[in-house]
Amino acid sequence: MSSKKALITGITGQDGSYLSRLLLEKGYEVIGLTRGLSESSTKNMKYLGIDSQIQLDVCDLTDLSNVIHVLQKYQPSEVYNLAAQSSVGKSFEQPIGTISFNIVSVLNLLESIKIVDKNIKFYQASTSEMYGKVEDLPINEESRIHPLSPYAVSKASAHWITVNYRESYGIKAWCGILFNHESYLRTKNYFVKKVITSSIEITNNKRKTLKVGNIDIKRDFGYSPDYVEAMWLMLQMNQPDDYVVCSGKSISLREIIEYVFNKFSIPMSKLELDYNLYRPTDIQDIYGDNTKAVQKLGWKYDKSFFQILDLLIEEELKNYS
């Protein structure tokens, strides 16, 4: 049995699955926590061929006693918290549930580590959405935080809670401030996944148009399998800290649609703007500065997002039925 043991919350998502694969390759024993066990719990892990190597357990992260029990049961050396209600759009519809879960779950994990074993290393998945109303670009670890959505508010709160436990109680806690990152394992409600799958359906006469909201905003996009390596690298450091993980460039959502439509020879007349999909507030342009992660962690990233789009299109077509 490996002496290195990692516990991952939110293991069923794209980052949880790719991180699990990376940790297994590094010789870890991996335990994944989910809200409930079902066929969908292992879908992504089965796709990556690692489902038989991961131990899954059910845990209610809003129940402190449940979290304490899990830490005592597995005694992990590292905990990666990737669990969250992570849809910005959904957070406007369900602000109370989003803010409540995304804050209380982090509080319970940190408090449990303080009670059970302060030597456990903790990774908190922070997000570029925290910065919101951007005044100066690029974003770095010292940039001003001004969240523009309930999701961003919840993640900003969780971020500062993590920093506070690090500074007040000596918890070995890192925050990874990740910008948008995509993969084939994204769920269909995410923009890039939606654009590619809808384009395939239009090409196969299963859909007439692609409906989108505001596409004249710009985002810094990257590739999930590369970004999870930065998560792991953080917890290999001796000194806890916060790191921005990004590509360093932004691209408009319109450019993404134009690129994908061109790949499939789809005319732009198949694009339909739906003002019901616009958000009450939105970030117009945001991109980050990954200098600290590159220099201190030794993390390397040099992909353009058009390269990633090619990879995603190829994988979608390979699995399309």
Describe this structure in words.
Helices cover 42% and strands 16% of the residues. α6 links the parallel β5 and β6. Strands 3-2-1-4-5-6-11 form a 7-stranded parallel sheet, with helices on both faces. Strands 7-10 form a two-stranded parallel ribbon. The protein has a two-stranded parallel ribbon with strand order 8-13. The protein has 321 residues and is α/β, with parallel strands linked by helices. The longest helix has 22 residues. It has 11 helices and 13 strands. The model has no long low-confidence stretch (mean pLDDT 95).
Oligomer: single chain
Q: What would you report as the Rg, rounded to the nearest angstrom?
A: 19 Å
Tell me about the biggest sheet? 7 strands, parallel
Helix content: 40-55%
Residue-averaged pLDDT: 95
Could you say which overall geometry the principal axes of the C-alpha atoms support?
A: globular
The number of strands is 13
Count of helical segments? 11
Strand and helix order: EHEHEHEHHEHEEHEEEHEEHEHH
Through-space gap between termini: 40 Å
The structural class is: alpha/beta
Beta content comes to 15-25%
Identify low-pLDDT runs. Answer: none
* Strand line-up of the largest beta sheet: 3-2-1-4-5-6-11
Give a quick set of tags describing it.
alpha/beta, 42% helix, 11 helices, 7-stranded parallel sheet, two-stranded parallel sheet, 321 residues, globular
Topology:
Elements: E1 5-9, H1 14-25, E2 29-34, H2 43-48, E3 54-58, H3 64-74, E4 78-81, H4 88-93, H5 95-116, E5 121-127, H6 150-169, E6 172-178, E7 181-182, H7 191-203, E8 210-212, E9 218-219, E10 222-223, H8 224-234, E11 242-245, E12 251-252, H9 253-263, E13 271-273, H10 291-297, H11 305-319
Parallel strand pairs: 1-2, 1-4, 2-3, 4-5, 5-6, 6-11, 7-10, 8-13
Antiparallel strand pairs: 9-12
